[in-house]
Batch of 3 targets.
Target 1
Amino acid sequence: MIQALKGVRHVTSGKMNLAVSELSIPVPWGEIRGKVWGPDHGRPVLCLHGWADNCGTFNTLLPLLPKDFRYIAVDLAGHGRSSHRPPGVLYAFPSYVMDVRRVVDGM
């Protein structure tokens, strides 16, 4: 990983407005929640957290990124403020892929 980053330069793009709006996408078992940063007209960037995390992981990263994008960070099902799946339903990778599709379709 370090070798891959050797040629990367740090580019300063200015501070992003820290205004954050809440996101809620209805799903059959409740809702997928998240946060949105950036202008409404900005090119959308979907931000997904890791397995034992939530969208709050992006709170300190996003202010450092270019300000002309619209960053959408979601809490995947069962994480953060999103609804848990019904009892007996597995938290499997294909289910998360379908959840991401629901978010994209709901935007």
Target 2
Amino acid sequence: MARGSISNTSTANLVLFLGLVCLTTVVRSKEWVVGDDKGWISHIEHLWPGGRPIHGGDVLVFKYASSVHNVVEVNKAGYDSCSPGAGARTYSSGNDRITLPSGTSYFICSFPGHCKNGMKISVTAQ
């Protein structure tokens, strides 16, 4: 009987440990409002993310007037050229939530002239 108690206690401890690991992973993700209280605006590329400790799994929230802006997830070439290119994903709700993978992600506004005026960001998530 004592052996069964040890085994059950070990199993219970393992389940508890794994549950805490999962909870820690879920709690770790954070929401970031791009541009803070200013939102998704021109000239943001020099202001944001500005050294924020962003991690894979964190969520970027883009807030903007959808009649005059959008958010397009692009690759590095699209970011540098301000051109969405084939396969780029466009968001247009005015309150877009994008979960970041680890690595660098690139976002632009594809309305004419906006990206060239700094309405673009690159975000590196740890």
Target 3
Amino acid sequence: MFSKMATYLTGELTATSEDYKLLENMNKLTSLKYLEMKDIAINISRNLKDLNQKYADLQPYLEQINLIEEQVAALEQAAYKLDAYSKKLEAKYKKLEKR
């Protein structure tokens, strides 16, 4: 009877020991995975800082582009007004010419 009890307890302890080994392995793998994720996060952070710096470096040029765009729009409006005015003058000239 004691040998069966010893066998049973040995089996239980072995199973518990195997469970702890499995948990230890799972913890090690999880730790490695988190280290990989940390490295990825660090790289993403570094790349984001680089992109923000590049955007900041481009900002003066973007402002110049916006200013040029506004000036082009104003020039285009002036050209339309000048075209309309020249058409009116042409129409007046043709009326005067017919007299």
